[in-house]
Specification:
Radius of gyration: 31 Å
Number of strands: 6
Number of helices: 22
Mean pLDDT: 76
Largest sheet: 4 strands, antiparallel
Low-confidence stretches: 296-303, 305-316
Length: 565
């Protein structure tokens, strides 16, 4: 309502009339209203700190699981000495007073876990046939035979399902036993071990002795008669077994290469396909052509028209479709590009699911923050455009920043995300498509348990958290200059809460996260309010606010630094 009292832009029916740009800085009455904006923007920061502090106290941010664990993970153990007997001997000689409860050596179990998963599917399929009394059910033992029997029948004979699963069970059990024998060989060892102490204090002291730090000038690792080289060890508190991604632990030698390749790929995606607006702009000529075709008054008489039938069909497309299509495409590309970033980070091969979710959350949020908010706000559609501006152009029209159309773009984005984005998350089209693929690749009805297991996966906590934090940052950043975004932001969070609560309770499997994810979210919330202060400072300079207001916003922004510290 305060912005609505100005007279700078349009009338009462125009969107620009509700924005901060509608106030005249040279008008005395509008200057008082600008002071109210500055004060309210500053008061949001202590309010955010107070709310996040109460949230962190209720959440108990101290990760007690890692503080009280008695198990220590050790890496870079020499392969020849990576045996339980040698490790016990080293502990007895180096730490005589420490009682070791258990030692487990880590092996490359990628193939073993794959065989175990196949065995579980076979057992479930056999039980499914027995419970449903499908002893007479037959199948063609070829992938995809359920939907394309005509191609499989000439070359493969049909077999009874029960007999096939019993034979597969015996074969897989024999392979698992053989693989367990192979695991004892040296080439299957990963040079890692989990050591469990009987006393928590012993585990803590052992970690301190082997902790690598620049400040540790004195070597405190205790030696033994064995050439274990404990000074080369990497030691940390072991995560819970269910949090470990055992398949990725065998790729430790390629982790650095994978990180470099993944970051290079993300850089090229961010550089050339930075913002969703850039992709929509590439399709703008097509959309404009569709809009022009819907202008029926400029068309000649239908009786004298010689246009092709296709053009005649497109000519009568509804205008609301051509106006709504860019927004829908904008949300679609905004949803797809972070998925590419998340999948690129998955290729790195994180060792824990909680660490993987945390890494995806941070990387996706920063990517979305720059590509959806910061660059479009300053008029850049991609990092490539920004680089060309810095290297070749060098001239920037500051008056084009924070136009009312920019606020309308973000309001439109929040509305689309709230109404369409949450609805699509509830419908889950990708999961439905994956379910159809699994059915097409199955062999018979007996593969139903395996299909159900394949389509149920963990909730993508890192990616979903990052998108939600993006909407929060967008709403807070434009809450003063474009107040119409706040009710739609509230609508988004209400719908997002309802949809995620349903999906977490009934759809997805449990997701492994740690307290660092929530701590990072708290930092993002406080940073979003700081972005509001920065936004007010830049807006004051660009729109030539009175000197006292501009200097006050700058001083308040500088006073936020002690709060971060």
């Amino acid at each position: 309502p305060l912005n609505f009292t100005g007279t700078q832009l349009g009338n009462s029916t125009d969107f620009g009339h509700t924005t901060l740009a509608n106030l005249d800085p040279k008008n005395d009455e509008d200057s008082v209203i600008l002071w109210i904006h500055v004060i309210l923007a500053f008061l949001m920061f202590p309010a955010a700190i107070l709310l996040m502090r109460r949230f962190s106290i209720g959440l108990k941010m101290t990760d007690t699981n890692l503080k009280i664990t008695r198990t220590i993970a050790i890496e870079n153990i020499p392969d020849k000495l990576c045996e339980v007997e040698y490790l016990k001997q080293h502990m007895r000689e180096a730490y005589k007073d420490f009682n070791v409860a258990d030692i487990q050596v880590v092996y490359n179990v990628t193939k073993l876990m794959d065989l175990n998963s196949q065995l579980e599917n076979v057992i479930d399929s056999e039980k499914f046939c027995r419970d449903r009394q499908l002893q007479d059910l037959e199948m063609v033992p070829v992938s995809g035979a359920r939907c394309c029997r005509c191609f499989c029948l000439p070359c493969v004979a049909r077999v009874p399902c029960m007999e096939h699963f019993k034979e597969e069970k015996v074969r897989l059990e024999a392979k698992i036993v053989e693989e367990k024998e192979i695991l004892k060989r040296k080439e299957k060892k990963l040079g890692m071990a989990f050591v469990t102490f009987s006393n928590i204090n012993h585990a803590r002291q052992f970690l301190r002795d082997h902790k690598n730090s620049v400040l540790n000038f004195k070597q405190r690792c205790k030696e033994s008669t064995l050439a274990m080289r404990p000074d080369k060890w990497s030691v940390w508190y072991a995560p819970p077994p269910g949090d470990i991604i055992w398949e990725n632990m065998s790729n430790k030698h390629w982790n650095l290469v994978k990180k470099i390749l993944a970051n290079i790929f993300i850089f090229f995606v961010a550089f050339f396909l930075s913002t969703p607006q850039f992709i929509v702009n590439q399709l703008e000529p097509i959309l404009n052509a569709l809009k022009n075709l819907t202008e029926t008054e400029d068309f000649p008489d239908e009786t004298n028209s010689t246009s092709p039938p296709i053009i005649d069909h497109i000519r009568y497309l509804p205008v609301w479709l051509t106006d709504f299509l860019p927004t829908l495409m904008l949300w679609t590309f905004t949803a797809l590009l972070p998925v590419v970033i998340a999948w690129a980070d998955l290729l790195v091969g994180h060792w824990t699911r909680s660490g993987q979710n945390h890494a995806i959350m941070k990387k996706t949020f920063w990517y979305l923050l720059f590509m959806v908010i910061i660059l479009p706000t300053f008029g850049f559609t991609s990092l490539q455009t920004y680089a060309e501006f810095l290297l070749f152009d060098g001239q920037f029209n500051w008056e084009c920043i924070f136009l009312p159309d920019s606020g309308a773009f973000f309001v439109n984005y929040v509305i689309t995300t709230a109404l369409i984005g949450t609805g699509l998350e509830l419908i889950r089209f990708p999961e439905l498509f994956w379910y159809l693929i699994q059915i097409c690749m199955s062999r018979s009805k007996a593969d139903t348990p395996a299909i159900r297991k394949a389509i149920k996966y963990e909730f993508r906590f890192g990616e979903q958290y990052a998108r939600m934090m993006l909407i929060f940052a967008m709403v807070v950043m434009f809450s003063m200059s474009c107040p119409l975004i706040t009710p739609f932001g509230l609508l988004y969070f209400i719908l997002k809460h309802l949809v995620d609560r349903h999906n977490l309770a009934y759809v997805y499997a449990w997701s492994r996260i740690n307290k660092k994810v929530h701590a990072t979210a708290i930092n993002f919330v406080i940073m979003s309010v700081a972005l509001l202060q920065f936004f007010m400072v830049i807006f004051s300079f660009v729109r030539s606010f009175p000197y006292l207001i501009t200097s006050s916003t700058l001083i308040l922004l500088l006073n936020l630094k002690p709060c971060f510290c």
